[in-house]
Write a sequence for this structure.
């Protein structure tokens, strides 16, 4: 099962799985897989992301770190709408799909060098990386903004990660996390190609749960782009392997405050607010390092983007909770995007939509009944 880690800009191939950016030009790396998806190669008795382990060849079966990630329920919500309940992953969000293969692939290598991993995130990704490091017996240092608090931060600390508080901007936090120090291996979820590649399993699961058919539409909340890029790559793999006939229409859902991708897709100029004050507080990437890659890949698969207003997020959140689905407001952005499209007749009756509900409402500190 052949694969290459390739620079998304200059095409340089990296042979070191620990690289998080191109050693030649510094741009983001991308995982390229050169084998077909075959349904007969699935581990059918394994109800986790590892039922697809053969399609993640950089992870050795004997080194898999498990917390019960993946194979989350796909629940029919109405005639045409299905929810993929990613909040039911071990740490409460879809990020476990990235952390599990990332940590599984690297933990032995890093332990052998007596090293530790570093990540910058005060949210779901930080919690997820910290949990998988804990399970692997690997030290993790999580860099967070100085002002951070709330349930996700508590979660990171309880997993036993060392927390480093950094004052200044969010990019300063990333800079500190990436700064070279002896024994430190940066596995930042936004840049590290293995994290993003792990998200492919979500496309496989949705397709298998639909009976090896793709839904007509897939709605996702988009901030840094790991979810979007991983899901696009998974569906592309299924199309190239002739498992499905064509791509579902992938719809990137963004808030009016954090919508650089939406603006680029619609050829509009984007000026982010100086401070963010949305209830969708997990969506913060006003200047995502993967923006060019997102634009390129989303256009390539003829995807779409939609932007929702604060009021629409509240309405979607309340409707979901009122029907028993208690998600993060940031996750409700995907459903808000769908509602907007349905209202504007951009989705027709009889067309299936899978909406990815990315994270659990219990981790939310910003909304009051
Ligand atoms: Zn390069």
């Amino acid at each position: 099962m052949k694969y290459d880690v390739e620079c998304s800009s200059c095409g340089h191939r990296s042979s070191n799985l620990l690289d998080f950016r191109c050693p030649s030009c510094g741009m983001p790396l991308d995982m390229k897989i050169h084998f077909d998806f075959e349904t007969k190669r699935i581990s059918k008795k394994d109800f986790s992301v590892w039922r697809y382990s053969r399609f993640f060849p950089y992870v050795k079966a004997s080194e898999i770190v498990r917390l019960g990630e993946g194979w989350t329920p796909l629940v029919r919500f109405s005639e045409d709408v299905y929810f993929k309940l990613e909040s039911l992953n071990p740490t409460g969000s879809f990020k476990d799909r990235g952390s599990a293969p990332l940590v599984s692939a690297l933990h032995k290598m890093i332990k052998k060098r007596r090293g530790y991993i570093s990540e910058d995130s005060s949210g779901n990704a930080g919690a997820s990386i910290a949990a998988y490091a804990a399970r692997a017996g690997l030290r993790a240092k999580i860099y967070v903004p100085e002002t951070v608090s709330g349930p996700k931060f508590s979660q990171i600390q309880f997993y036993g990660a060392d927390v480093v508080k950094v004052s200044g901007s969010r990019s300063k936090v990333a800079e500190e996390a990436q700064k070279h120090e002896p024994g430190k291996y940066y596995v930042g979820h936004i840049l590290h190609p293995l994290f993003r590649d792990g998200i492919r399993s979500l496309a496989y699961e949705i397709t298998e749960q639909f009976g090896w058919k793709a839904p007509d539409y897939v709605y996702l909340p988009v901030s840094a782009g790991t979810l979007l890029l991983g899901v696009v790559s998974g569906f592309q793999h299924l199309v190239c392997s002739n498992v499905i006939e064509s791509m579902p229409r992938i719809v990137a859902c963004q808030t009016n405050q954090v919508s650089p991708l939406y603006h680029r897709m619609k050829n509009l100029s984007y000026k982010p607010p100086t401070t963010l004050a949305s209830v969708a507080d997990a969506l913060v990437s006003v200047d995502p390092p993967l923006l060019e890659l997102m634009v390129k890949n989303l256009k390539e698969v003829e995807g779409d983007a939609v932007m929702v207003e604060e009021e629409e997020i509240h309405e979607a959140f309340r409707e979901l909770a009122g029907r028993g689905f208690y998600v993060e407001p940031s996750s409700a952005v995907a459903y808000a995007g769908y509602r907007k499209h349905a209202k504007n007749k951009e989705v027709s009756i009889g067309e299936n939509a899978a909406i990815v509900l990315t994270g659990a409402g219990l981790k939310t500190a910003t909304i009051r009944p």
In short: The mean pLDDT is 96. Residues 7, 9-10, 12, 22, 24-25, 27 surround zinc ion (CB under 6 Å).
